[in-house]
Amino acid sequence: MKGDTNAIEEDVQKLKLEGNDAFKSSAWLQAVHCYTKALELHPVPDSARAILLKNRAAAYLKLEKYNKAEKDCDAAIEICPTDPKALFRRANALEALGRVEEAYRDATNAMKSDPTNKELQPLLSGLHLKVQEKIKEQAKTSVKVEQMMELSFDPSQDSEKRETAMKNLVVLAREKAGADLMCQQGLLSKLKTVLKLEKNQEICLAAIRTLSELCQLSEEKTITVLNDLGLPWFLDTFNSESEARVNAAQYCLQAIINSLSGLTNKPESKPIKEKCEANKAMIDSLLTFLTVSLTSRTITGQARDAIIELLTRNCHFSTLDWAEQFVSIGGLYKLLEVSSELQEYKYESAMPITENTKTLASVCLARIYENMYYDEARKRYFDRVEEFVKDKLMAPDIESKVRVTVTITTLLLGALDAGNAMIAKEGVMEMILVMANSEEELQQKVACECIIAAASKKDKVKSIISQGVHILKRLYNSKNDAIRIRALVGLCKLGSSGGTDASIRPFADGSTTKLAEACRRFLINPAKDTDIRRWAAEGLSYLTLDADVKEKLIEDRKALQALLDLAKSGSQGSIYAIVTVLVNLVNAYDKQEVLPEMLELAKFAKHHIPEEHELDDPDFVNKRIEVLAKEGVTSALVSLARTESYNCRELIGRVFNAICSQQEQRGRVSQQGGVKALLGLAVEGTDKGKRQAAQALARIGITINPEVAFQGQRCLEAIRPLVHLLHQDCTALENFEAMMALCNLAGVSEAVRKRIVKEQGVQNIEIYMYHEHQMLTRASVQCMVNLLLSPEVINMFEGENDRTKFLVLLCLDEDEETSKAAAGALAILLSASTKCADKVLKVSSWQESLRFLLANPNLEVQHRGLAIVFSLLASSKENATEIVGSDIFDLLLAHSQSDGDTKEKEKLKKIALDCLEQAEKWSLVAKAGSIENVPSDLPDLVE
User: Where would a tag sit more exposed on the chain, N or C end, judged by fewer CB atoms within 10 A?
Assistant: First the structure.
């Protein structure tokens, strides 16, 4: 037993030392991993546990994970309450979290335990000032809160003054002091009354926003808000036809969910497991309440849309992982009920919906289906859908048939597998064709929409072409525009089933051009409503697979502007159609690579070989990109990028990336707000979509000064997507462009460099320093030059590793730019680190590398070489002795005696003389520059 304990103690000690080494090398995550593994061993003595916890807290502080650092310090302080290091580190964590009073208490206690600690005094002084400032601020805040509360809730006051006062409460609620004072003065009950009786919508909006700020600030206040106001009250707050009020209420409920789960409004945010477990009952109650409210007949269509969006956002496994629970409590059935609703059915029991409800429902159905990632869950999903469809089909009335058709259409637009499974059921397709052939316009309209959605697989297309084309043609002659446009889109989809293959044309030659012209007439007609123009855009989304149609559309400025205006209108149902047209115009879709060997094999086997249209050559594509950029496509894409649909986000990222492929268009994208949209697209969506958006950001970062392109905080936000492009799954071009952009960003500020380090950027970049591709090696070394301006990166080079050695070897690279960059990086590194100077002289080829630099034809390379030699001479007498005793000293003397006939050569001569002066300081040579020091056989320098 004693032997086991000794073995565990040895393992703990080994892991602790590994963690310490990783910490010294700035590998914070690795350090955390080592300390965690040591803490997981059992039994670990309290004294060792306390040290491991303190060390892990230090690593968490470096990673800016302040909550975790605080918890580790708490645990260490439980073991040793007066430990100054644990108190000091907890004080740092608490200060970063804004809890300055608690931080000051810890710093004071640490000072009592270790009064000679030099690090504590500046922390204590700084915290003392912050605490004093906070006390003054709280006094001011107290007066402000009292004044604003009095004005806001006094109905006798002037409406304008009350409005201003209520907006001031929103600001005051963002600070803990203001929020605490307001809650003490009965804010919640007063807000409840205001939202029930107030007629001024601006005051109501400010009241809801005040609640949002309270909930974002504190989990404790969120629980108080929920307990005091109750969930039904929030539904009443939602229940409005005012878009602004519904948006504010939706934001407030999301703030509550975020506060309870640890999520934030940032796309890459993840819930905190501990918080979710602690607040599970409340989170479940809230989401269950929203699920039950889905089919409420007493709420507005706008409120229903907001509920669907909240469920879509929070059901996914990347957020609250609530999708399976949603299905099990009957939420899927309710969502299908909503998706079967039609605005044309206006009777007492009808559910109010908007023109966006079906699109939002299809996105939610797709998001739920994505979570059914194992067979049993998928089966439950299909069972609920089948149950719903059967219930509707069993009813004898035609309305149920119409509703089930609408539901299948919605499924086909979202959860495609489920939609296809339902349409494959016996008799369903026949029922839809019968409805399309009926005389009732609503049946015709619904059937057309379902035929369009169903024509996504080749077997379905063939079946519909053989059975349904004559029906669609007949419907196109209808006097009702809603029927005509749907029939037209059905014909467009069937006519484009050959895709981009120019050799396949299901209809006669010239048919697609005629269909496109018909869509155009609907699109540009201002007298047509948004729904008609949306369908026209959908027709073009199929037809623009044909290069002839692309060329006609790009030359038609009126149609282009109509398309972009539709994009900016905010219609959710139009998004997919519009972005598909844009993707087709710029050829941003995936293209299958055809290898010459496979082509010959296909010819031999007499298989069909796809043909690319001559109008899809790069010259034509580039011209189309240029036209779209000039027409203002960026503004349209920025509007469209607000969508929750991952597929749409991917398509938008593709179009952005295609535009940014042209260097001259990148400034336009940046000026028109494209960067903000791209940052969102790069962190939330499909993997392909995130890569496309990240590459577009990289291209902007290469061409435009990062401080202009990524203003303020965006410089930091751009780093993670760019680092993610430094992956073996990405193309060499994506790797290269990401490194070039990171190189530019690393030159902006120390804050940016620190973020690159934090995102593991240094480790990802240096992998490419060993790459066989010359351009990737060059880009990685150039990026490292700017990163070495950071003390943190220099610390990484000082650790137990071969980073410095590899820079020395890269100085000999046959690529001049790589060699120059490596020499520059080495010069910066050695000017800041004597440890790395010692490492240089341990590399077996150090003389060869320095000789190569000092005798290089390129004066810039010579300059870097001399700077390296100066740092080596200045680092220590031992290093200087080795330099003086080598043939490098002969080259140095030659430089000191060369003719400075140009400014550049004069600079080189001055650095060489500085080097000799440094050697003279160590008493290794006589006075620098003395002629007697110069040997008669000086080497000739290449110039």
Answer: N
List of residues 6+ apart from 172 with CB closer than 8 A: 141, 144, 145, 148, 178, 179, 182
Tell me the two tokens of residue 111.
Answer: 């000072």
Q: With respect to residue 895, please indicate whether it lies within any of the assigned structural domains.
A: yes
Is 198 strand, coil or helix?
Answer: coil
Residue 916 lies in a domain: yes
Q: Residues in the chain, how many?
A: 943
Token pair 């390296």 is found at 868
Contact yes or no for 660/696 (Cβ under 8 A):
yes
d(CA 657, CA 700): 10
Exposed (0-12), middle (13-18) or buried (19+): which is 417, by Cβ within 10 Å? Answer: middle
Q: Is residue 80 part of a domain?
A: yes
pLDDT band at 649 (very low <50, low <70, confident <90, very high): very high
- For residue 6, give the CATH number of its domain: 1.25.40.10
**What pLDDT does residue 940 have?**
44
Residue range 108-156, pLDDT digits in tens: 999 888 888 878 888 888 888 888 787 776 667 787 888 888 888 888 8
Q: What is the pLDDT of residue 933?
A: 43
DSSP output for 96-142: HTT-HHHHHHHHHHHHHH-TT-TTHHHHHHHHHHHHHHHHHHHHHHH
375 burial level (CB within 10 Å; 0-12, 13-18, 19+): exposed
Write down the pTM of the prediction: 0.71
How are the residues of the chain apportioned to helix, strand and coil, as percentages rounded to the nearest 5?
Answer: 75, 0, 25
H/E run at residue 345: none
Rounded to whole angstroms, the Cα distance separating 816 from 217 reads: 55
Residue ending a domain, among 93, 117, 141, is 117
Helix 331-339 × helix 280-293 angle, to 10°: 30
Q: Which value, to the nearest 10 degrees, does the dihedral of the CA atoms of residues 621, 592, 640, 688 take?
A: -130
Residue 155 is given by DSSP the state T
The per-type count for the chain, helices as H runs and strands as E runs, is 55, 0
- Preceding peptide of 43 cis, ω within 30°: yes
Q: Treating both helix axes as pointing N-terminal to C-terminal, what angle do 159-172 and 120-152 enclose, rounded to 10 degrees?
A: 160
Do residues 868 and 850 lie in contact, with contact meaning Cβ atoms separated by under 8 Å?
Answer: yes
C-beta of residue 490 within 8 angstroms of C-beta of residue 455: yes
Q: How many domains does the chain have?
A: 2
In tens, the pLDDT along 489-509 reads: 888 887 776 544 444 444 545
The domain in which residue 36 lies consists of 2-117
Q: DSSP characters for 447-488?
A: HHHHHHHHTTSHHHHHHHHHHHHHHHHHHHT-S-HHHHHHHH
Question: Of the candidates 97, 117, 137, which is a domain's last residue?
Answer: 117
The CATH number for 856's domain is 1.25.10.10
| H or E element that contains 784 | helix 774-787
Is residue 901 situated within a structural domain? yes
What average pLDDT is seen over the chain? 87
Termini Cα distance of the chain: 74
- Dist CA 138 CA 444 (whole Å): 67
339 neighbors 365 (Cβ within 8 angstroms): yes
